[in-house]
Specification:
Largest sheet: 3 strands, antiparallel
Strand order of the largest sheet: 2-1-3
Strand content: under 5%
Helix content: over 70%
Structural class: mainly alpha
CATH architecture of the largest domain: Orthogonal Bundle
CATH class of the largest domain: Mainly Alpha
Number of helices: 15
Distance between the termini: 36 Å
Radius of gyration: 26 Å
Shape: flat
Number of strands: 3
Length: about 400
């Protein structure tokens, strides 16, 4: 087990007792005032004590693991596997502690502030610097644990743990004064409207890009003369900055809608959904086209020869043999395009297309960090959900391909 990520995690977590647990803000634009862990009295000593105990266990596990590697270098793989499992146990405990304990302390600090009358009305709290650093420490710990375990189940455990803890705190009402919850309550209807719009824009763009990109990749594979032209066009589109792409589409679409009122009646205009969908679709083309071409190009030659030996025609060989073998790699291109589309859709709010970017740009314009975070959190959650969905889909397709 490499020690650097673990040492980084220990170093970041050590700031939790000394840095702020929460920040009390009288309104959305105030910088606020920090509240520290040791101000919680007896409860404030629990977190440092647990951190210290688990940190000592992690250090002991690292030392024991290093000695085990030295003394057991001449032994078989079973001994090394046992040593690795022993090192994972304290690291897993450390990662779970960093994931759960800080949020409990945040809740206790918020409860104390509420009891003292510091919260209520438009007053709210946000996680303090110490809590943010501990979150980064948790990410480092989970990353190292995932690397040593070589399994995505570790990440699944993290996500489930975080979701359960956050859900319990939200349902219990302990976070009613959390700044992002306060902002959400004010804009709940707008939040869900923009959520539907964000999903619609990203999903439609990926679906259209897949419908265009997969056939384009097939054409590029079948006809080498135009292969470089297809790849060159899609690569050039990818290099254009998103704001520039939206700007390039506004003028011609606006002129088209003025010249043809029928299109304007259908909702086609220089700003809004139409240029956003066009730009997002264009950005999603490259990974789909490139992966389709790569997948078909790397179908083993002996497989093609076997198909010809069985008397298959070229079209039969393509659809019955080559396409099923290429499907997993093609799906990975769609995976990349989908995750990128979730992020790119954020910028579409600048041209009136909506989505969670609306909250981000409104918050930036009003110098309201809480509103920015209200837009950022669901975008990150959407990207993770899309990524996990495609990972499950990959496993299903790979299993069906093997069988």
């Amino acid at each position: 087990m490499e020690t650097l990520p673990v040492l980084i995690s220990l170093l970041l977590a050590s700031a939790f007792p000394m840095a702020g647990v929460i920040t009390i803000k009288p309104n959305r634009v105030s910088p606020g005032e920090a509240r520290y862990l040791l101000e919680l009295g007896y409860a404030g000593w629990v977190a440092p004590a647990l951190f210290l105990l688990v940190a000592l266990a992690v250090i002991a596990g690292m030392v024991t693991g290093s000695r085990g590697r030295t003394s057991g270098a001449h032994l078989g793989g079973e001994h090394n596997a046992t040593q690795l499992r022993r090192r994972r146990v304290p690291l897993l405990l450390w990662a779970i502690t960093l994931t759960v304990l800080p949020w409990i302390m945040v809740t206790l600090a918020a409860g104390r502030a509420a009891a003292l009358g510091e919260l209520g009305g438009i007053a709210r709290f946000t996680p303090g610097a110490g809590t943010v650093l501990t979150m980064l420490a948790a990410v480092a710990a989970w990353h190292e644990l995932n690397r040593t375990a070589r399994s995505h189940r570790i990440v699944g455990v993290l996500l489930v743990t975080v979701v359960i803890v956050v859900a319990i705190l939200l349902v219990s009402g302990a976070w009613d004064s959390l700044a992002y919850v306060v902002e959400y309550r004010v804009r709940a209807e707008r939040f869900w409207r923009e959520a539907r719009r964000h999903w619609m824009l990203a999903g439609t763009a990926v679906a259209v890009a897949s419908g265009i990109g997969v056939p384009a990749g097939m054409v590029a594979f079948r006809y080498p003369r135009i292969r470089q032209s297809i790849l060159g066009i899609t690569s050039t589109i990818q290099t254009v900055p998103s704001l520039a792409m939206f700007g390039l589409l506004i003028a011609p679409l606006a002129a088209l809608s003025r010249a043809m009122p029928q299109l304007r009646a259908l909702g086609i205009a220089g700003v809004g959904t139409t240029p956003a969908l066009i730009a997002l679709t264009l950005y999603a083309l490259l990974p789909v086209v490139r992966n389709t071409l790569t997948a078909l190009a790397f179908v083993p030659l002996d497989v093609r020869e076997s198909g010809r030996a069985m008397g298959m025609q070229r079209r039969q060989q393509f659809w019955i043999v080559e396409v099923p073998l290429a499907l997993p790699i093609v799906l990975r291109g769609v995976h990349t395009a989908a995750v990128q589309a979730v992020g790119n859709t954020t910028v579409a709010a600048l041209i009136g297309a909506g989505g969670f970017g609306w909250f981000i740009f409104q918050g930036l314009g009003q110098a309201a960090d809480d509103l920015v975070v209200l837009g950022v959190i669901p975008i990150v959650a959407m990207a993770v959900i899309v990524d996990r969905f495609f990972l499950v889909l990959h496993k299903t397709v790979d299993w069906r391909t093997r069988t």
